[in-house]
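It is worth pausing here to work through a concrete case rather than discussing structure prediction in the abstract. The textbook approach is simple: state the sequence, then state the predicted structure, then interpret. We follow exactly that order.
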Amino acid sequence: MVTSNTILFTIICVCGLQAMILSGLVAFKKPRTLANIFLALLVFFYALIAINIVVVNVMKDYDMLHVFRYMQLELLYGIGPALYFYTKCITHPQFQFRKKDFIHFIPLLLEFIFYRTSIYRTGSDGLYLDVMPTNSYIYLTQQWIGVLSIWTYSIASLILLKKYQKQIKEYYSKIEHLSLKWLQTPILIYISYHFLWRIVTEIDRFIFDKSLREYYFLPNFTILAIITCWIGFKGYLKKTQDVVNLKPFEKKSKNSNATKDQNFLSKFKHLMETRKPYLNPDLNLAMLADLLEMKPRLLSSKINDNLNQNFYDIVNTYRVEAFKERLISHDRDQLSLLGHALECGFSSKSTFNNAFKKITQKTPSEYLRTLKKTS
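Step two, the predicted structure:
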């Protein structure tokens, strides 16, 4: 327990309750989707954690802690599955939650039952005794398994996102609005939160004899409440059209000695050099396939096999080359570096800088300085 702080309690309660309201709005937002339901659950579970801290400390102040032990609000085991299935829904819009998937939430049910037992009550109270009883170690084990569950599902979610990021590069040359970066941020925040929280509390427990608890305990949950409220708000505003349904292409083993399709290479090079479709920032695989009179899946396979690059990278390679040509033209100084990049088909400064650095190992500014020295 920590010393009560009215200001922090108020912030936690306001943000926590607001997050709960937002979770309800997200769950019933039209059109109703499975992704929104899991996001709502995720926000709700984290809001519960924040509200739980305020309730337990207030009831402690009124000498009613024994009553709180019968109404524990924290539900750690629901966070991981909710996060994972939300990510699954976002990266695979056709995903359907089946009966067998309920097995992931069985630990949540067991956790809820555990909090209704005397093992939890005596174990939780025993944490504050000089010599902890056996039930306290059972309670701590249950808590640690819950945290490991969150880490495991979070890592699985990040893997799904990474695969999605790789997959969209097979289809699109403009991926900023499809990258789901806003989702990666809360995943990383929550992974870091539980990791740092456990590290700090254990260091404080074994090295400082819990003397630092007053400095980090309530501020930590205040930040958690604010972040959870933000995620709920961001989720409520998220546009459904940002989600695309991608079908994975068949993976083929890379063989650098494989015979290149010279007919395809000639046709592809001629199209890119004459019609310059890469100048269109919204160019995608289907559009390029139409120009080449090919099916998108076949085109993607041809690009990977013959150019050793995915669609996204090969298009940006042509854009970088076009940018380099503009820098040696007579009207170079009429536009800024970003202006030239936009003219070459790039849609943002960050995408341009990343692509240019990846291809040339130099920043655009460094490349221009080198060019001026040699000219």
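Step three, interpretation. The chain has a mean pLDDT of 89. The radius of gyration is 27 Å.
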